[in-house]
Here is the input.
Amino acid sequence: MEIKVRVKERVIIIDLNGTIDVNSANLIEAVGQCLRDGYRDILCNFEGIEGIDYIGISALVLAYKEVVNYKGRMRLVNIPVQLRNLFSISGLDRVVEIYTSEDLAVNSFKEDEAIENIKKLQLRRRFKRLPVDIKIELKQKHDSDARCFKVDIVNLSAVGAFIFGCEKFKLGDEVVIKFKLASDGEELVLDAFVVSLADKQVQPHLYPGIGVEFKNITPSMQEKIFEFVERNASLLPTDE
Here is the structure.
């Protein structure tokens, strides 16, 4: 498979030609090099691809995971008609966004960035984060063996938390969190997904730790956490 790399509006476009199969390690290497060079938005152009097998699909998945680990975004464009069914059967089209034109794909990165900045600003304004020490049970949603008992929420807000003491999870994992806001309170059970990992070299005081964002939280549950944070934040000392 032949690979050519170009840049368009801060997006790396990887033009692919040939067949994506067992000999496609160069795709993973190309994506990895782009990430190491500091690029986080990667678009794979399939216009010149003649065929892809399940090993090729696996290579794409590995490349996508590498991008996610670098907190980047990877998308696909110009999938030939004869290959679209394989993408559907494998489920890859439900994981990686696919576009029909290069301009649409490139613009999607800019739109997502703008939306994400707005969301972050809104959340910072609306939700306070409270330093706490709450013991929790944490487990992977689809794997009962991957769990941690009596680890700590050390930072809590109505939209997420930072959890210290467990290193069994990776970015994107769906988890279930069980905890009580007070010793005599009801047990809260929340779905969440891992959105950050503490770096051992950069954040040794937070390692092992993960940041999670609550998923499908009900308004009533979110309100309980919001009120708990607001109530206890008012008791914290200030710098004034």
Summary: DSSP finds five helices and eleven strands in the chain.
